[in-house]
Amino acid sequence: MTDLVLENVHVRYGSGASAHDAVRDVSLTVGSGRIVGLVGESGSGKSTLARAVVGLHEPHAGRILVGGTDVVRARGREAAIRRDVQMVFQDASSSLDPRMTVGASVEEALAVRGTVARGRAARRAEVARLLETVELDPARAGDLPSQLSGGQRQRVAVARALAASPRVLLADEITSALDVSVQGTVLNLLRKVQRELDLTVLFISHNLAVVRQLCDEVAVMKDGRLVEAGPTTRVIDAPEHPYTRDLVDAVPRLAAPVDTPTLHRGAVS
Ligand SMILES: Nc1ncnc2c1ncn2[C@@H]1O[C@H](COP(=O)(O)OP(=O)(O)OP(=O)(O)O)[C@@H](O)[C@H]1O
């Protein structure tokens, strides 16, 4: 059981006159095994917040707790805590080494994170298992990223994140670089692994229709601050903050709930 708790988190870029507070006093809880959507217009601070959680930015103030442990203080000291939180980015093309095969890339994630240290055969078996988990044929392990589709590359990125056996996954616009036709399959995969592994997920997205289908709760950011958070249906169907209302009104289909055709709420494909 691992929850992610943000307490009064501030993240500042630069210093002095050029200082810019990209995240201001954000407090948010992602309950264990829950999926919380983080929405807000471009530049509102969503990625900065997620990057602070995985240690790519140092918070200027506040606490970030994973399963009750302050990860900012523990960082650099406890590899196990670092492994607990993994992030998948928007563009798998830039996060995968183009010269490295898919299998080597996943194996590297295992090796760097120390998940499997027992010889090559064990690592290869673990790579095959991870590829199967993300529904990629292990026979593709010898392929280069350029031989895969965008959706398949994103599956490899998910497999690399899962190599660390994380308890918390941050997904930052993981489908926005993909064709609409494959977005649903990647989202279904995310839901499948979230359920199978009981992951705690912070799901950053511009797409409120997807957030409505996927997320238990939603948090709304504007200018670095959290302006509203709550159960997804409540926030989308009865927004309290005018900014949330504007976001919802900008997506006419949200006015009446609809099924997103490629995303299956009940059965996991
Ligand atoms: N490395 C950086 N140095 C300085 N400022 C930055 C840096 N990265 C982001 N910012 C600024 O911080 C603010 C928040 O940016 P951030 O990327 O976190 O927003 P976002 O909500 O994730 O936007 P998007 O949806 O476009 O990804 C913006 O004003 C942005 O210009």
UniProtKB/TrEMBL annotation:
InterPro entries named among the record's database cross-references: AAA+_ATPase, ABC_transp_ATP-bind, ABC_transporter-like_ATP-bd, ABC_transporter-like_CS, Oligopep_ABC_C, P-loop_NTPase
GO MF terms held by the record: ATP binding; ATP hydrolysis activity
Keyword annotations: ATP-binding, Nucleotide-binding, Transport
Keyword Transmembrane helix (UniProt): no
Membrane-crossing residue ranges in chain numbering: none
Pfam families xref list: ABC_tran, oligo_HPY
Keyword Iron on entry: no
Family affiliation: Belongs to the ABC transporter superfamily.
Name listed for the protein in its UniProt record: Dipeptide transport ATP-binding protein DppD
